[in-house]
Amino acid sequence: MKNTKIAKKVQEVDYTKTGFNEIKESLVSYIKTHYPDTYKDFNQSSFGSMMLDLVSYVGDQLHYYLDHNANEAILPFTKDAETTVQLLQSLGANPELNFSGTGMVDVQVLVPSLATGVGIDGDYSITVRSGTKFRSAGGAVFTQIKDAVLTQENSQILVHSTNAFGNTPEYYIFKTKVPVVSGEEKTFTVDIGDPKRFLQLEIPDPTITEILKVVDANGNDYFQVNNLSEDTIYRPIVDPEGRDPNIKAIMKPTPIPRRFIVEKSLERTFITFGNGSEQNIKTNNFLEPKRKVMKFTGLDHTSTPSNDPVRLQSNHKLGVAPANTTLTITYRSNTVDNSNAAVGTVNQVVEPILFFENENTLDQGKVTFIKDNVQVYNEEPINGNISIPSTEELKRRYLGFFGAQGRAVTKQDYISMVYAMPGIYGAFKRASILKDTNDLRRNLNLFLIAEGADGKLQKPSNLMKQNLKTWLESSKMISDTLDLFDANVINLKINFKVILNNNTNPNTAISDIKRRLFEEMTLIPPDIGEPIYLSEIMRIIQSVPEVATVPTRDGIKVSCLSGGSHSDYNYEIDLNTSPDNNYIYIPDNSIWEVKFIDDIVGTVVG
């Protein structure tokens, strides 16, 4: 007897339906088509309808998580901040989440006069050492990062005090500028056991800004690199012959078998080592040109020879991981959330470190008096620290870094390199670059803005711009020349009129509108040169439930505020508004800001 099988007809299913209502409609249609006699009760209160709702609900949820996971895997569409940081790091960017404030402060040190009262006592040669700590009125600690030798050539000299008769100076004030960075040094010690490939350690401090030193119990230093495949660094070696008085050191390539990388998340910092061992160091892993051997198997030819001139080691273990030792990690950490400082607020000396030549031969009473009377004051703001960036802010700052590839050719390359400057040297809130049309050379004008201690836009300090220029020197085109400028800040005042719904409290409604406007217009600051869209302001106002409408003719009026607590820059808003009253043009060297919530004024009409 012949065995025949009846092929089961496959029912077509529409997989494009993803929403609750769409899924339920598809299920109902499917049942009516394929089971017309089996089930007919589609009443909303029936048990079958409840089951359809539950299945549709589960399908809707599954589609949501599927879409969410797909979006989170693509950087431009991510919403989760942690995922954004990880994706940026996978592209080679190093998002700065804890920024440092950098700037200059004036340190005043007393120097005694000669016994005759005429002239400065040259025996008191004083150096203010790096590591000296200062504190601002807001509680932020700043650390001096470079030694300052006090001389008559580099210091402003004033008379501090005179003798009882008032005719002979006893002490002079030596006033000099020193560079400082926010934060103070801390140490973290951890015991390491048996060898582990790609050992990863967490530093338990969410405010860390940079790692300064990693050393094991045997005194071996571990060096930070951008990626573990980098096995060479360049170190300054003092030129013993002094061949050039303007150059004090020689740059020497140095192999570093002990190295690590820094990986970050929103509130956690990790250091990761390679997968090699001490045995890799004990063997001869340094490349010798005479030991270069052609590597091929079963070939009677070789391709064009290649050799990396900066690769000084022949092993491929990506560095040595510490084992059976104790690591001491020295790092710098901010002491407060906002480490910027306004003018005149850095005025406390916490821990002065003064070095006197031949201190044992000096009058110890005078030495103690000098150490106890060191003063500090900042004549310009210290900035560079910015508020914790949102997901959109992170993407805006670092999305172009992968395309830049460590060099600056296009406009976006330059802006990405500005944002990629390590936070220890300061952080810029916004940057814009333009070609100088008045220059016959390939000159570029870079406009910059930073963030002040109050979280508002502020001009960057001179030290920040100096650091940036040094940072860009290694990546810019050799034919490019750069001029750095402060962007003008245009502080706005917004006057609006609204017609409210019936039975609405006008005071509460105006307060809600002002809060909504201020939050949305300050959440992500605009780019330099970005226009103000009046239609966007109207959209925000109309999104408040209490608002019935906004008068079309004079419902929104924008003006410029200058002087006092606002920027000194005055801009003619009326002359730069589009004919259709849709947007306000902003110059390429300026950026707008709504500085205070009280700069928004509302009126109820109708």
Notes on the protein architecture:
It is globular, with a radius of gyration of 33 Å. The protein has 5 domains: 20-72; 102-183 and 336-377, no CATH class; 184-290 and 312-333, no CATH class; 391-486, no CATH class; 489-604, no CATH class. The longest helix has 26 residues, at 47-72. With 606 residues, it is of the alpha+beta class. A hairpin with a 4-residue loop joins strand 3 and strand 4 (141-144). The strands form 7 sheets. Strands 1, 3, 4, 6, 7, 17 and 19 form a 7-stranded antiparallel beta sheet that branches. A 7-stranded mixed beta sheet has the order 8-16-10-11-14-15-9, with helices on one face. Strands 24, 26, 27, 29 and 30 form a 5-stranded mixed beta sheet that branches.
Question: Which structural traits does this protein have?
Answer:
606 residues; 7-stranded mixed β-sheet; alpha+beta; 5 domains; 7-stranded antiparallel β-sheet
